[in-house]
Amino acid sequence: MADPDSAPSAGRFEVRVTSDSHFGWIRTRLSIERTMMSWIRTAVALIGFGFAIVQFFVRFEQMPGARPAAYPNAPRDLGLALISCGVLSLLISVWQYLWGIRYLWSETFAPIAGLKREGMHTPVIAVAVLLICIGLFAFFAVLLRLV
Question: Does pTM top 0.90 for this prediction?
Fold first, then answer.
C-alpha cells in the first residue's frame, strides 16, 4: 500500500516526498548545471582554438622569409572544423540540458522539488546561446575571410 504522503508512481519507481528525495533532486539539478557548464567550457576551447589556429597561420604566412605552405587551406579547414565542433557541441548540450530540466520539473518530481518552477532560472542557457552566436560569427568570419 502506498504512503499517503508520497507522490504518484512514475511507472518504474515510486517517488516519496522526504528530505532525502528533496536534496537528491537538488543535487541532480546542480549536476545538470555543472554538466552544462562543462560543455560550455569545452565549446569555448574548441571555438577559441579553431579561431586561433586560423589567425596564427594567416599571420605566419605574412612574415618575411616564410615559405609557402604545401597545403595553404589546411589551417583554415582545421579552424572551421574546430569552430563547427564547438558550435555543434553547444547545440547538443542545450538540447540535453533542456531535456533534463524538463524531466526534473515533470509532474512526478514536482512534489519533491519544493520550489516553484519560475524561481529556478539560471543564466547558463543565456551564456550558451550567446556563445553559439559568437561561434557562428567566428565560423562565417573565417569562412568568408573577414578576419
Answer: no
